[in-house]
Amino acid sequence: MKIGITYDLKSDAPGNGQANAPDDLQEEFDSPATIEALASVLRGLGHEVVKLGDGRQLLERLLADPPEFVFNIAEGQGVGRSREARVPAVLEMLGIPYSGSDPLTLAVTLDKDCARRLAQSTGIPVPRGFVAYPDEVARGGDADLAGLLQDHGLDLPVILKPACEGSSKGIRGKCLVERSGDFVPVLRSLCHDYRQPILVEEFIDGDELTVGVVGNDPPEIVGVLRVLPNDAGPFIYSLEVKRDFRRRVRYECPARLPEATLRAVERTALDAYRVLGCRDVARVDFRLRNGVPYFLEVNPLPGLNPETSDLVILSELAGCPYATLIERILGAALARTAPGGIVTTPTT
Known about the structure:
By secondary structure, the chain is α+β, with helices and mostly antiparallel strands. Helix content is about 35%, strand content about 20%. Strand 8 (about 205-215) and strand 9 (about 220-230) form a beta hairpin.
């Protein structure tokens, strides 16, 4: 089978050519080494591989010589909350089957507040929180902005994060706000740098967990990864930590949790996967407090870097090597898209 790979590559230009851009602007994008690792696995399975990229180049290649199937890991350019949905929408318009979730799921899950509201509507626990919008931050005085926490019934500590980003973009150590005087400066800084709404949530002081899920009928748990900090004190899985993960954290998979807690985490991950309409693969993030898994987000385009991506790390710790993981994702997608294949819709 001729399989195309869609992706966005990191650019050599700092900030992708944008002046005064944050240094994580391209954090979601992939390296040529990641694309080649994925392509190598697909070739090893007997497929012809075509590297399609994204943007105008992708459109031209699809129209000139369309593949039979697309393995999609394209994140999309810019800051729009629907940017991950563009490639699947084009592929559906052209009638080309592809791996992963559909445009609606990719748009909804990139918007963390939309995703948490949908999850909460089905009884999945989420941290208490609210969204601050750039226009209200720009026109608000410091006193008004400081009062947002009280207005929404939140006490410190809280965590602030760009509402429509992945790969921990914008989530730095400073985003865990423990002092009242830090809240407004961090809020203004994030609005300025990321040009989008900012999600403000209560800080769940507990274990950081991420759960890998693969498949459709039914979806299966690949593993539950617990992220254990090497330093004492309140911990968030920030971008600084992820960039220095070998020194800053230890990974535990399977997570050494009480059996009942582990089952609750797995069950909640599958519930979130289904209600948000995920297909073929996703990674679901939680914070665990008093045995309760609090939903943070779903990533239906999880990183597939063979050395540094959380899904790959947890998969290998769970006994599923990189090539096997890719084969499972592809197999699920091919089974779903085959004539008479699986129809996947959210269940409530």
